[in-house]
Design a protein that fits this description.
384 residues, alpha/beta, D-Maltodextrin-Binding Protein, domain 2, 39% helix, globular
């Protein structure tokens, strides 16, 4: 039996619960029990609406999928009517909700895209009476600058973007962004066509800015022109731009030496996806730094089933559910009462270094003009 299948069975045994009590986890005794979806669903269904379907759009490899089964059962929804789609580039969900008529009830977006979606009116105001488990969110993750009253968004997970490598191919690791962006150092030549950058424009551009010694919040024309030149010089040495599934496959096949990557993805690769690579795939923040980000849950303005979306947000904020989810995906939950249960996520100093705040910066929020500049540079680099 594969490790992943074993984990699913183990979680099923632990999580066959009315949410709020996990076998082996002292939720109720510690006063950490959440308000179950069944309770909130009954409140909705007393009115004029029923919870009949749900369509979610989230990053790939970003949920313990067994929780979807549990949620559907808890709220009395036909599991076949819970659709869960995935993406690897946040421009995809943003474009869909911007165009309208996407059919999605809940989307997960990074900080910058969440800010734009709110400012452009693409998402609806939350009914907090349907999300009583908001009380469990760590105050550090409430009131983000793009949504100071949490009227439209709730944090799903947070993490770091930096670099990962195969230590058998890159024994000294990635310690500086000069290795990634400066062809004169010989690193790119030595690892030509075996380095992968993310397909997320923001992360690639921010890393190039850090290499140039620029402020991550500087979107001036001169800075963006320099960033474009750096990325065009780097491009011939790349295997390509890809997401999680691409660098998972590249590391496993031995066709990728280095990848710009998300920390939780690498933890998941080493423990669940490819445990045979646990001692070979490393992760680190170069001396110039990396990004610290949040992913946020939002309900599109024209969501067909907004009540179900509220229920799902509330479900994911239950401390027991948040703990199971975080332990599986290896990212840190914003649910403060889940922290005592997810020490394993935080115990790997490579994935969660103790001085994260000193070595990372927050993803900057973009004006519409800044976003246009970002997309212009990205399109020119892709077409070069």
């Amino acid at each position: 039996m594969q490790r992943r299948e074993f984990l699913k069975i183990a979680v099923a045994g632990a999580a066959g619960f009315a949410v709020g009590s996990l076998v082996g986890l002292p939720i109720k005794k510690s006063g950490m029990e959440g308000v179950s979806g069944k309770e909130v669903a009954s409140k909705i269904q007393e009115g004029s609406h029923r919870v009949e379907a749900l369509k979610v759009y989230n990053w790939s490899y970003y949920i313990q999928e067994l929780l979807l089964d549990i949620f559907a059962k808890e709220v009395g929804m036909d599991r076949k009517k819970l659709v869960y789609d995935v993406f690897e580039d946040p421009s995809e969900p943003f474009s869909k909700i911007a165009a309208g008529g996407s059919g999605y009830d809940l989307v997960v977006l990074p900080d910058a895209e969440a800010a734009l979606a709110i400012s452009k009116g693409f998402v609806r105001r939350l009914d907090k009476s349907l999300i009583p488990n908001l009380r469990f969110v760590d105050p550090d993750f409430l009131h983000p600058p793009f949504d100071p009253d949490n009227e439209y968004s709730v944090v799903y997970m947070w993490g770091i973007t930096a670099y990962s490598w195969r230590s058998d191919f890159v024994p000294k690791g990635v310690t500086t962004l000069k290795q990634i962006f400066d062809p004169e150092l010989d690193f790119l030549k030595r690892h030509g066509k075996r380095v992968m950058m993310l397909e997320e424009a923001m992360e690639v551009v921010l890393s190039a800015k850090a290499y140039l010694g620029k402020d991550p919040y500087d979107w001036g024309d001169k800075t963006m022109e320099e960033v474009k030149e750096v990325l065009i010089r780097q491009k011939p040495y790349l295997a390509g731009y890809g997401g999680t599934s691409e660098y998972y496959r590249g590391f496993a096949e031995g066709s990728i030496d280095v990848a710009q990557a998300y920390n939780g993805d690498i933890a998941l690769l080493r423990t669940e996806e490819h445990p045979e690579l646990a001692d070979k795939v490393k992760f680190g923040i170069p001396e110039e730094g990396g990004t610290r980000w949040t992913d946020n849950m939002l309900i599109p303005k024209d969501a067909p089933h907004p009540e179900a979306a509220h229920l799902f947000i509330n479900f994911l904020l239950d401390p027991a559910v948040a703990a199971v989810n975080s332990l599986y995906v290896k990212y840190m939950s914003p649910v403060k009462d889940a922290k005592p249960l997810i020490e394993k996520v935080l115990s790997d100093p490579e994935i969660y270094p103790t001085n994260i705040k000193d070595r990372t910066w927050y993803v900057p929020l973009l004006t519409e003009e800044d976003h246009a500049k970002l997309m212009k540079v990205w399109k020119e680099v892709q077409g070069s």
